[in-house]
Amino acid sequence: xxNFSVRTASDGSRVIAAVQQLGxxxxxxxxxxxxxxxxxxxxxxxxxxxxxxxxxxxYGEALARVRSIGxxxxxxxxxxxxxLGIIADNGIDHALVAFAAMYVGIPLSPISTxxxxxxxxxxxxxxxxxxxxxxxxxxxxEAIAARIATVRDGARIITDLAELVRDGAxxxxxxxxxxxxxxxxxxxTSGSTGTPKGVITTNRMLxxxxxxxxxxxxxxxxSPPVAVDWLPWSHVFGGNHNVGIILxxxxxxxxxxxxxxxxxxxxxxxxxxxxxxxxxFGVPRGVVLLxxxxxxxxxxxxxxxxxxxxxxxxxxxxxxxIRHEIIALAKxxxxxxxxxxxxxxxxTAPFATTAWGSPEPDVDxxxxxxxxxxxxxxxxxxxxxxxxxxxxxxxGYWRNTEATRGAFDADGFYKTGDAAQLKDEADPAxxxxxxxxxxxxxxxxxxxxxxxGALRLALLEQGAPLVEDVVITGHDRDEIGALIFVSxxxxxxxxxxxxxxxxxxxxHPTVRDFVAATLARHNAAAPASSTRVMRALILPEPPRRExxxxxxKGTINQRRALDLRAAxxxxxxxxxxxxxxxxxxxxxxxxxxx
Length: 594
Prior knowledge:
Number of helices: 19
Number of domains: 3
Structural class: alpha/beta
Helix content: 25-40%
């Protein structure tokens, strides 16, 4: 008997869903907090580094403080119609004010701190806060508070939670009126396909999502999970998925101050060496750095995998060589470690598909739908769009009726904008093949479609470890091109210099030869016009997070990068190419270089 049912929708599209039912789930997110505060009040919920040591917050302490802060929020001016904006790094205070808002039914919107840096455009923050319509904010620092004040006149900006402390009984009364359809959060999209939109996220979405996860990843049951995690809470992966897993299962989250980039990643390594996790969540950029650390220190790899039960990389596709290396290390040093990935969107809270069931889907897919979720495959301009419907799917966008209307089809399925198809039409259990963002994919002048996501991943696999990210060009052009970001640290190694920050290191002759050889190998393996890269430019500086080129989860924002790098794109296609542009002639000469 198949684990999945297949039917035909009213528009003729195929719809698949898990046979297994989702079952009951809590009505509100804070029910999990109340449960663990009663059952394990002294267990650590959250921990963060302060002056070199860990500051800890227990479940009992968390609930008591959430109730008192929630009471203060009810007097602050925030309300169900006027959300609370939070611009702060991950941490205990951020968590307390966020859960306090959810406890009393005030929507909260965690906004990326990247919007509030001195280098960021004030216009982008002003536009986002205007869309949100908040007049009360929690700021993680005085500098952020000052930034908010410059773009939001008259806003109340809180930097010290002590000013919100009141009698928690008032909050309890408000909590009694919170239900599944109460708006818990407004999560802004990354803007990878346009202006960021505020995704309405209800308690029902978050609670149903965690129940889906509990079914497909039974490894989370048993002993409470322990995670060391940096993923920003302004993004659904970190703030909804990871924090939610810890809370649902009564676990402990150690807030990691590191980031998946040279330098800041040292903090992550220090934390992981001190706190071996039982669950690990990451994005490909960070997983690559982690594997490099394992290669250099087998003892660290042994300690890391000793207690690990679940290793999940999401947010983008993980290069095959890195995934196989993780699998091999888990078999060597671990015991029954699940190595997996998942797919979802901000609008799905975010979990939607993963490898689960018996037998599990093929490894080159994004898995199959979680229980309770229906997946539709709808024709779209010669391709197939994956659409979803279920209790974890958003009802729409905050104060944007036009975007909400356009987000759903006639059957009520959310149109994700992602291209996908079943690997085997006769056997949906084999999984769904992801084919990139519909808005990112483009046609050459020949009419040939280019799958940006697959091409980018192929170049990353060929160019590892030097090639760190790639932006694909060629829309309405005759040929595909690429803008290439390289790792400064690996560029310095290739060049035989310690000057990793030197502006010219990215275009050192040895670095150019390596990238040229990467293109040669790729073109030899993928010579079709839809896959071969005929021109490339190595960019001398890394992508700019403050300008929106890098999302909170550490992945490239293709559209934003193309807009910001318009001059580089024009240089790629100039009538007379400059010497910095790599061309097929050069790649042919250097094909043997590695």
